[in-house]
Amino acid sequence: MAIEVRIPTILRSYTGGAKIIEGSGDTLDALLSDLDSRHEGLRARLVTEQGALHRFVNVYVNDEDVRFLGALDTKLADGDSVTILPAVAGGSR
Amino acid sequence: MARYESLLDACGGTPLVGLPRLSPVVPDGAPPVRLWAKLEDRNPTGSVKDRPALYMIREAERAGRLRPGATILEPTSGNTGIALAMVAKLRGYRLVCVMPENVSDERVQLLRMYGAEIIFSSAAGGSNQAVATAKQIAAEHPDWVMLYQYGNEANARAHYETTGPELLEDLPTITHFVAGLGTTGTLMGIGRYLREKVEGIEIIAAEPRYGELVYGLRNIDEGYVPELYDASVLTRRFSVGTRDAVLRTRQLIEVEGIFAGFSTGAVLHAALAVAKQAVREGRRADVAFLVADAGWKYLSTGAYTGTLDEAEDALDGQLWA
Hints:
The complex is a heterodimer of chains A (93) and B (321).
Chain A: E1 3-6, E2 20-23, H1 28-38, H2 42-46, E3 57-61, E4 64-65, E5 81-86
Chain B: E1 16-18, E2 33-39, H1 50-62, E3 71-75, H2 79-91, E4 94-100, H3 105-113, E5 117-121, H4 126-140, E6 145-146, H5 153-170, E7 176-180, H6 185-197, E8 202-209, E9 236-241, H7 242-256, H8 262-280, E10 285-291, H9 308-315
Parallel strand pairs in B: 2-10, 3-4, 3-6, 4-5, 7-8, 7-10, 8-9
Antiparallel strand pairs in B: 1-2
């Protein structure tokens, strides 16, 4: 099951510079573990030791924030697109 | 209701207009799904930010933090700065804005016309850097007053006390409210008000997703979440890319005649997503969304004309919302 994952610039040191990588998993949790098996250390940058998403990381499945979909338990399906972004202060405010 | 004692008194009371052509078509006999636009560009300086600017300055005056002739300092890349500049001018304060150097030229010109001074922070640091730089300058000038829109409760309160009640009065059947997420003040204030008054209301955030430059932090620990943000106020949160925002901004002017800034395109994209979902589920929906400003300040980007690819290129690396 292929899920496309977009990696932000600051985390590409874990993906050999790749912008987009592929992984698999029924949930976001499973996907991140799958990615970590090939890109060691990536998961620890996104998930805290307590098992929650890092405060300054936003993860979107098909452009929707996973914190409102079930966080790490968010269900994934083949063809879904996952985007990881650091939290920033926004634009023209 | 057309006469006011001064420009400051003309803040708020903006129109809510229906979008009969953009609202999705529902099958015969199905409950209606309607889109409504709250035109916040009809405020004194042309954006929703007049409301929090006025509230934050009045609150600082009330608390004795602002005295005649005082200097106000604020990290802002646009509308809040312009709104503060107008209020500061009329009430006799000096304004210093800290903004990233990659904002559109119109914003710089407008700020200077209102008499504001500008300190530029690096483009690569985005708004995060503007916030950090402003905090540093504030420490060096303890007599300056930083209103700090990202953490000032008067920002959200402006919407709790004005925009929220206006929406409910004009649209008592509201089921969804959609707005952009920046300082988060708009969604926190309106969201809290509507949640108290309307059972089952859905509060939806549309967050602009910029080009990579804007996210060029050195470390993920340097990320930033505004102090005002309370995720429990929101029902859903969408990230909208440049291409979708431009597409919807153009659709809004082509189909409904509303000339809005690109942040509104992102908001409309999310509003259409929830409206179409309501149609699929056969639910009645009155989806109100917020038009934060008009498109005038963004014309120089060139993104209103040409192909979508060209528009995407033109906005790459810019803070378009």
